[in-house]
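Sequence design from tokenized structure. All designs in this work follow the same two-part layout: the structure record, then the generated sequence. An example of the structure record is given first.
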């Protein structure tokens, strides 16, 4: 089956599943459909823009790299399954580092702040990224696949996991305390990632992980909870809490002053 189709089906399934769960066990009252439609519109435009700007998919890049024996992983002999696991872990580390770069490099932050303006977290926040950010991220991942020689299967698996985890950890979902603590040992949970979206000063520069939670602990960017009580913790950018910009405003936001 086509890798793009598999990724799309898994993404749609995750959106429906975690959307139903957050409706049943919400962390906060559900935002309206206008909010959801704006966020979903961003990912549609982002994917169209990426397809036009980068006409070759990441899996196709990996196929070309493997065909020509390029990249660092081709210099070592590993069993097939281990090569896939190593590739997925390396790509996840890349996304952690990329996420930090989008926070600390001013020109990249202009793009990424579109994601952080959302004051009502739900599953659609996980796809609320400016089209230019998606294009830049695709180019970064493509360069990493080329340099590291990551297998096509590892790329396909990682892309599916990244999409599903982004929908999950942005969900407006309240997990039972014991389950939140258990899952947080291995993966990024909604409770852990909400701290990253906190409007409390300085807290958005913590918890950069998307899939595996251990990178934040390893690199000392982990923050277990906000200084504000979770029930009233403000989310979004400081000074913009409660503001729901429209589709056009989000597209223009990177080109406006902070």
């Amino acid at each position: 089956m086509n890798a793009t189709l598999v990724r799309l089906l898994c993404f749609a399934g995750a959106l429906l599943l975690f959307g139903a769960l957050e409706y049943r066990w919400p962390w906060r009252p559900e935002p309206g459909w206008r909010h959801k439609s704006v966020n979903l519109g961003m990912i549609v435009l982002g994917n169209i823009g990426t397809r036009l700007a980068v006409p070759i998919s990441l899996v196709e890049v990996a196929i070309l790299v493997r065909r020509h024996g390029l990249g660092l992983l081709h210099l070592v002999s590993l069993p097939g399954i281990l090569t896939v696991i190593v590739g997925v872990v390396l790509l996840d580390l890349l996304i952690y580092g990329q996420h930090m770069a989008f926070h600390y490099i001013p020109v990249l932050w202009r793009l990424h702040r579109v994601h952080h303006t959302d004051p009502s977290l739900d599953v659609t926040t996980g796809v609320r990224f400016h089209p230019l950010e998606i294009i830049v991220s695709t180019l970064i991942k493509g360069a990493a696949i080329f340099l590291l020689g990551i297998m096509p299967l590892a790329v396909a698996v990682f892309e599916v996991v990244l999409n599903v985890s982004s929908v999950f950890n942005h969900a407006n979902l309240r997990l039972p305390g014991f389950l939140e603590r258990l899952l947080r040992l291995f993966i990024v949970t909604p409770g852990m990632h909400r701290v990253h979206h906190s409007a409390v000063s300085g807290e958005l520069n913590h918890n950069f992980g998307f899939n595996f939670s251990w990178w934040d602990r390893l690199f000392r960017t982990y923050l277990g909870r906000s200084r504000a009580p979770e029930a009233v913790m403000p989310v979004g950018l400081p000074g913009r809490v409660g503001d729901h910009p429209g589709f056009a405003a989000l597209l223009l936001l990177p080109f406006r002053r902070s």
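Residues 65 and 75 are 13 Å apart (CA to CA). We note this feature because it recurs in several other targets discussed in the main text.
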